[in-house]
């Protein structure tokens, strides 16, 4: 498959770039974090959407070196923004299941943090609920060691997997991100509204922070705020931004 071999050299050819989507505090109305989203600028194909190349990167194993590139590039961006005098909120980086199950993930992240000197508080990692499903004891141990580095952990796409409450309690996780598919129809679908309400109240009783994804309308925002959701992200606040536009948003402090 041609795309896999092209993907192999993409980092060296400087074809990857990062976008940043603001995560807004319900109470502060300010940017409290940004999610890092990888983009592939292919010389002929143009901008390849992650939905097309992330699955290929996963099945080919390339997600491990590419994922490392993402972490290092995010740290480099933090350093550059700080050097320019910006107050940089924590950056949230997505990890694939394959990275989570990779033997040396924690050591590699520790090495990058030492090398880049940004401080562990500068990074958060998003792990999909689906990657928690098998080899659970190993995953618990990996997440504990990751947490031991001082980085924060979130469960991404929450609600789409099947994690039990007792399993959640064993995980050193700070945050749940409610999947966009539940937020989308909260106005018209009473069941989705009930699920979102239940996730938020469960998260609060487990002392977890809750982020709603895919917030597109003021109705959704006010509904989530009323239920006690802590932060939100979505096109209502901002689409994913280039580094230049993200820096501009941080300067405006909105
Ligand atoms: O912008 P959006 O199309 O960026 O992202 C689509 C999907 O790709 C999302 O599910 C997102 O989690 C995933 N994704 C984006 N960037 C990364 C990345 O750096 N690593 C991994 N593993 N997934 C990513
Ligand atoms: O799976 P993950 O949550 O990491 O993916 C983030 C994805 O969601 C990215 O593709 C991003 O572009 C997309 N996204 C972010 N906000 C919105 C939104 O408000 N509406 C829609 N439809 N997609 C969004
Ligand atoms: Mn995510
Ligand atoms: Na998600």
TrEMBL record:
Domain EAL as annotated: residue spans:
1-254
Origin superkingdom: Bacteria
What protein am I looking at? EAL domain-containing protein
The species this protein was found in: Pseudaquabacterium terrae
> What part of the entire protein does this chain span?
588 to 841 of 847
């Amino acid at each position: 498959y041609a795309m896999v071999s092209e993907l192999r050299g993409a980092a060296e050819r400087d074809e990857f770039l990062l976008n940043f989507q603001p995560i807004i505090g319900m109470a502060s109305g300010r940017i409290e974090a940004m999610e890092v989203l990888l983009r592939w600028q292919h010389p002929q194909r143009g901008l390849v959407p992650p939905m097309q190349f992330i699955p290929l990167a996963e099945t080919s194993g390339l997600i491990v070196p590419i994922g490392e590139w993402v972490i290092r590039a995010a740290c480099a961006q933090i350093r550059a923004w700080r050097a320019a005098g910006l107050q940089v909120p924590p950056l949230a980086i997505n990890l694939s299941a394959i990275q989570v199950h990779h033997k040396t993930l924690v050591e590699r992240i520790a090495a990058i943090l030492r090398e880049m000197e940004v401080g562990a508080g500068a990074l958060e990692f998003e792990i999909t609920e689906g990657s928690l499903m098998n080899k659970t004891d190993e995953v618990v141990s990996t997440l504990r060691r990751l947490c031991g580095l001082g980085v924060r952990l979130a469960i991404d796409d929450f609600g789409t997997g099947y994690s039990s409450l007792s399993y959640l309690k064993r995980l050193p996780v700070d945050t749940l991100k409610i999947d966009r598919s539940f937020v989308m129809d909260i106005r018209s679908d009473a069941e989705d509204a009930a699920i979102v309400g239940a996730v938020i109240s469960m998260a609060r009783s487990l002392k977890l922070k809750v982020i709603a994804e895919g917030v597109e309308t003021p109705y959704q925002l006010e509904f989530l705020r009323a239920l006690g959701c802590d932060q939100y992200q979505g096109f209502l606040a901002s689409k994913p931004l280039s580094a230049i536009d993200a820096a501009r948003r941080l300067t405006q402090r909105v």
